[in-house]
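We read letters as residues; the fold follows as tokens. Both lines appear below.
***
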Amino acid sequence: MKRLRILCVVIFWGLSSGCTKFPIVGSYYYKDALIGTADYNLFSGTSHIRVGDRARKVRCEGDSYGTYAPLFTLSGAGHGGEAELRCSDGRIFRIQWATLSWATGYGVGRDQHGDRITLVYGMSEEEAENFLLKELPVILKRSD
């Protein structure tokens, strides 16, 4: 009986937290790879983002929130928002993001020096790389 209560508490806590973790793959300076996660809180509509650069050991972290929701969407596509990432090397990236589905999307931004960052979330590294190869020129044209 005690184990059942503990199990119920754990399940209730997990459901009530409303958090979902999405993988993030990206790059800055057009060459340095970023890997990380976004912890999305379903109830608040916000995310906490953590990414890092394996080669130079730079870490970036910050919060994201939605600024646009389409009137009607079954696929989850078309939502948009903003994020600000503060990096361990002093850079601050301001990012605009958009959803491709309920669980995938991309973001593009610049730091205070004008350097660009691109992020894809909810995809494996291979899927993100293929998406960026195909769609990045269109995305960058829209963001400039």
